[in-house]
Amino acid sequence: MEVVNSIGRRKAAVARVFVSEGTGKITINKRELDNYFPSSILQYVVKQPLNTLGVVEKYDIKINLNGGGYKGQAEAARLGIARALVKINAEDKPALKAEGFMTRDPRVVERKKPGQPKARKRFQFSKR
């Protein structure tokens, strides 16, 4: 099997995912998964699509992550892995879609507007 690649995004994070057949090793920015994400919850988030299909030990995954915070990066990686798995086997799509792993979360930070302190907050209004 050749290498299958896909992209996952979440907030400001972008994950480029490369999936190939192997033993279940996940490498993120040339570091091990448990080294890059010390939190077991984030490790679980990254592995969710693999656990859903029961193929954790079947593929080696290499991920280039940049931008965003650690939660956004983990969810971007999850989307990238799910998309790559669907490219490998299209019959897996309904199972992943039912869990919500195929959906790009469109929520991003609203831009700051000029003449006010934050995106929606206004400076205090003074009548006199």
Can you walk me through this structure?
The chain is an alpha+beta fold and 128 residues long. It has a single domain (4-99), classed as 2-Layer Sandwich (Ribosomal Protein S5, domain 2). 34% of the residues lie in helices and 23% in strands. The protein has a 5-stranded mixed β-sheet. Helix 2 packs parallel to helix 3 (70-88). The longest helix has 19 residues, at 70-88.
What does this entry show, briefly?
The protein has 4 helices and 5 strands; from the N terminus they run E-E-E-E-H-H-E-H-H.
The main pleated sheet reads as: 5 strands, mixed
Shape: elongated
Structural class: alpha+beta
Specify the CATH architecture: 2-Layer Sandwich
CATH class: Alpha Beta
Q: What is the percent of helical residues?
A: 25-40%
Query: How many H/I helical runs?
Result: 4
Low-confidence stretches: none
Strand order of the largest sheet: 1-2-5-3-4
Strand content: 15-25%
Total strands: 5
Spatial gap, N to C terminus: 73 Å
The residue-averaged pLDDT reads 93
Summarize this structure as a short list of keywords or feature phrases.
Ribosomal Protein S5, domain 2; alpha+beta; five-stranded mixed beta sheet; 5 strands; 128 residues; elongated
What's the topology here?
Elements: E1 4-10, E2 13-21, E3 26-28, E4 31-32, H1 33-36, H2 40-53, E5 59-66, H3 70-88, H4 93-99
Parallel strand pairs: 3-5
Antiparallel strand pairs: 1-2, 2-5, 3-4
